[in-house]
Design goal:
Blueprint lengths: L16 E8 L5 E10 L4 E8 L2 E10 L2 E8 L2 E9 L5 E7 L6 E7 L1
Antiparallel strand pairs: 1-2, 1-8, 2-3, 3-4, 4-5, 5-6, 6-7, 7-8
Length: 110
Amino acid sequence: GGGGGPEITTTTQVRSGTYAVRGRDASGQTYEGSAQIQATGPNTWRVTWRVDGETAQGVGLTVGDALVVGYTSGRETGVVIYGAEPNGNLTGLWTQGREGGVGAETLMPR
């Protein structure tokens, strides 16, 4: 590559676009929705989720095959880490709020 600045080698399959969301929260309740992932740089992303009429917004960073996103949902702050699958799916684990607990989520490219 050209230009200045350090480069992070990335083999991740993360792509900008719209994703279908399927997940399970810490209490075992399932949910579905959609997510929009938009590249803001070579390794940085803006992510917007729409689930059950609620919108969450975050910023992310890819390192290798992992996408880490910090986000806000309502008045709560959370973090999610996704692993990129060869088929383009992103499978992740998340936690938010003060109570702890871990949810699971898969993003599937539309």
